[in-house]
Design goal:
3-stranded antiparallel beta sheet
Length: 168
């Protein structure tokens, strides 16, 4: 018998979230940490935070400035709204699609920050962070966040018919 997915779409169209108390306790701190990063006065001063604001037009500064003044300016408030949603629903056993999408946004943003700080590449493996490496716990959080984002994407894609149908 296949293991039950920790996040799955229900027949009612919402999402059942089955995470352990330890997982929720770990996740509880993430939104506040992301808020602190998003509210930095100069996000470009921290390369890991700057990773959340990549230039839309890296080869065209004028086009990039135009983007930042238009669509790019709306990204910050949207991220902060996702943070507030995750904080408000962290203990929920059921989430709406919008709430689950907010979770995905927050966890993925922090995954990007952690991956940048750890200098993770496509070739990085857990062996690169042995137990005696002081960065090992941070890599474990990065790996968990990667798994959780993948789990959420899977649950959302099954809803759209992209993935296999939900097991009942």
């Amino acid at each position: 018998m296949a293991a039950k997915r920790p996040i799955r779409r229900t027949r009612r169209g919402d999402y059942e979230v089955r995470l352990s108390r330890e997982e929720r306790d770990t996740l509880r701190a993430l939104p506040g940490e992301l808020r602190d990063l998003l509210e930095m006065e100069d996000p470009s001063s921290d390369p890991a935070v700057a990773r959340l604001h990549p230039p839309a037009y890296p080869d065209d500064p004028l086009m990039n400035l135009e983007y930042e003044m238009g669509a790019g300016a709306g990204l910050g408030p949207g991220r902060l709204e996702a943070v507030a949603t995750m904080e408000a629903t962290i203990d929920a056993d059921r989430l709406t699609e919008d709430e689950l999408t907010a979770w995905m946004s927050v966890v993925n943003d922090l995954r990007l920050v952690l991956g940048t700080r750890l200098d993770v590449t496509e070739d990085t493996t857990p062996a690169d962070f042995p137990a005696d490496d002081p960065r090992s716990p941070v890599f474990a959080l990065y790996a968990y966040a990667t798994w959780l984002v993948d789990t959420i994407v899977g649950a959302l894609s099954r809803q759209t018919g992209i993935g296999p149908p939900p097991a009942e």
